[in-house]
Amino acid sequence: MSILVDSTVFIEAERKGLSARQALAAISLRFPGEEAAISVITLTELAHGAARADTATRKASRYLFIQELIAVIPSSPVTAAAALKAGEIDGESKSKGIHLALSDLLIGATALELGYKVATANLRHFQMIPGLLIVSF
Question: Between the CA of residue 4 and those of 65, 78, 110, what are the distances in Å?
Answer without folding.
Answer: 18, 12, 9
